[in-house]
TrEMBL record:
Alphabetized UniProt keyword annotations: Hydrolase, Signal
Protein name stated in the entry: Alpha/beta hydrolase
SUPFAM superfamilies linked: alpha/beta-Hydrolases
Keyword match RNA-binding: no
Native source species: Plantactinospora siamensis
């Protein structure tokens, strides 16, 4: 059998940009509440113990390796596939606790790149990096682990350049969206085998993580997962509760919705997007016009007028050396930039400056945010991780073949009249035409029963994973404790101040959970004041 694992390069963001905008770049997608079904089929026999990792040094304090894992755990001695693993060695080896396995989200974010960024971007605290080997495995179908490819380079370029209308659900007429979905799903089969596509489910990712654990020689792992990583973590804790030392999940998906009702899940993500935009509007209005001059006290009307103007007369954006190739800023691209920046309070000043600049005919700021920061939960012209993202979702989700389901969901979103709703409509259409079936789809409730109590970190206003999902997750996971972060943002650790960081570090290092009901204020709290340099876009 030939298993196609053709690799797809993921466009990189310059380090200075990635460091400044890391929180938004991690806001990928995925997300989840109520059907207790039968236990999914489990492997007939355990997978063989993998060989120890053959590490090769690949940077300062970094090692890289490849692990071979079963394509199908129901046939553990059958076809094996390679997965990429990167380790950042503990900086205080004499006090090393063990291995901290991480999943930064998506589905589709490269865990290997997150680990490789530790020396520059500090995604984990110095105390954690001192005591743990931080280990990232690109999940099957992601990054260096056989990245899913469904479009040719030419098709990707066409998608990035296409004109979308924010007034139409999905941005295009339905027949065009359906044609796009047929092209996409056919391309997935052209580049990968059906067996590989069917294997990309989260339960297999959790089993792969356990193979990494065994290859590391660890009896138990410590785990930190963000966004989609909060599906991976509870899955691992449910399958292998006795192999969990400690676990933290940050910005949790509602795994019940993820497993059972993905169209409702996507509808609730759309509402969360709109809530963060409304938070930016509210802050802009309540701050003085000297602080937030966009709209002169009425930012909603100003944004609507700007989007209409850009749709009628798009702005040409020249290239910015090492940052942006340039392109066209129309209303749809502007709204995508607004969605991304409004969801990260650290980018609120950038958003204000970019909107003011666009009013004056300079679209560089908004175009930069849309093209370099956005890795969209729903896909779209700048969703650089769209292919892997779709493949994992379709492998995990129940069959969504009835087009009427998608049309009804899109109509519901459109009737709300929200500014960002268009991008959410028909966002699961690829799964309606998905060309393979995951016949042993895991449907058991993810409770983590038998694992140590898990810390759930939920943001009060989150653009991707609404706060009530964190509340539901904390109730579903046995013995879990909920830590609440006030303010706007997706994920909280290392982006919201010492209250959250101290609590997460205490769990990871010492297993000390905060008191139930603990609430942390957002640091920084959020302001719309433009940067002092002025609204000229990134330099």
């Amino acid at each position: 059998m030939t298993i196609s694992l053709r690799r797809t390069p993921v466009p990189s963001v310059p380090l200075r940009v990635a460091t400044a905008l890391a929180a938004t770049a991690l806001a990928l997608t995925g997300c989840t509440a109520g059907i207790d079904t039968e236990v999914s089929p489990t492997p007939d026999r355990p997978a063989p113990t993998p060989k120890p990792m053959d590490w090769k040094e690949c940077g300062q304090g970094l090692d890289c390796a490849t692990i071979m894992v079963p394509l199908e755990y129901s046939n553990p001695d059958g076809t094996q596939i390679p997965l990429a693993v990167t380790r950042h060695r503990a900086t205080d080896p004499g006090r090393r606790i063990g291995s901290l396995l991480i999943n930064p989200g998506g589905p589709g974010v490269l865990a290997t790149e997150t680990v490789a960024s530790i020396n520059a971007a500090n995604p984990y605290s110095p105390a954690v990096v001192a005591r743990f080997d931080v280990v990232g495995m690109d999940p099957r179908g992601v990054g260096k682990s056989g990245a899913v490819r469904c479009l040719t380079d030419e098709q990707r370029a066409e998608q990035a350049a296409e004109n979308r209308d924010p007034r139409i659900p999905g941005g295009k007429p339905f027949d065009q969206l359906l044609a796009d979905a047929r092209t996409f799903t056919k391309g997935c089969l052209d580049h990968q085998s059906p067996e590989f596509l069917a294997s990309l489910s989260t339960d297999n990712v959790a089993r792969d993580l356990d193979q990494v654990r065994a290859a590391l020689g660890e009896d138990k792992i410590t785990f930190y997962g963000a966004s989609y990583g909060t599906v991976v973590g509870p899955m691992y804790a449910t399958l292998f509760p006795d192999r969990v030392r400690q676990m933290v999940i940050d910005a949790p998906m509602d795994t019940d919705l993820w497993q059972n009702d993905p169209l409702r899940l996507l509808d609730e993500v759309s509402r969360a997007n709109e809530e963060t935009l409304n938070a930016w509007f509210h802050t802009c209005r309540t701050e003085s016009v000297q602080v937030c001059p966009f709209g002169n006290g009425d930012p909603e009307a100003a944004l609507d007028a700007l989007v209409t103007k850009l749709e009628a007369t798009p702005l040409k954006v020249p290239p910015i050396k090492d940052l942006s190739p340039g392109g066209t800023l129309d209303g749809a691209v502007a709204l995508e930039a607004v969605r991304a920046a409004a969801g990260n309070r650290a980018l609120w000043p950038v958003l204000t400056a970019a909107l003011l600049a666009a009013q004056q005919g300079n679209g560089a700021g908004l175009f930069f945010v849309a093209s370099k920061v956005t890795v969209a939960p729903f896909g779209g012209p700048f969703a650089t991780l769209q292919e892997a993202h779709n493949a994992v979702r379709c492998a995990d989700w129940p069959k969504l073949g009835a087009l009427s389901q998608h049309q009804a969901a899109a109509k519901k979103i459109a009737e709300r009249g929200e500014r960002l709703g268009s991008r959410a409509a028909y966002s699961a259409l690829n799964c309606a035409l998905w060309p393979v079936e995951n016949k042993d789809r895991f449907t058991r409730e993810l409770t983590g029963a038998g694992a140590p109590p898990i810390l759930v970190v939920g943001g009060r206003v989150d653009p991707v994973t609404p706060y009530y999902w964190a509340q539901a997750t904390a109730k579903r996971l046995k013995g879990a404790v909920l830590l609440t972060r006030e303010g706007v943002g997706h994920t909280s650790y290392r982006s919201s101040g010492p209250c959250v960081d101290t609590a997460v570090d205490a769990v990871l290092i010492d297993g000390a959970l905060p008191a139930g009901g603990t609430v942390c204020s957002a640091v920084p709290p959020g302001t719309t004041r433009p940067p002092a340099a002025g609204p000229q876009g990134p330099r």
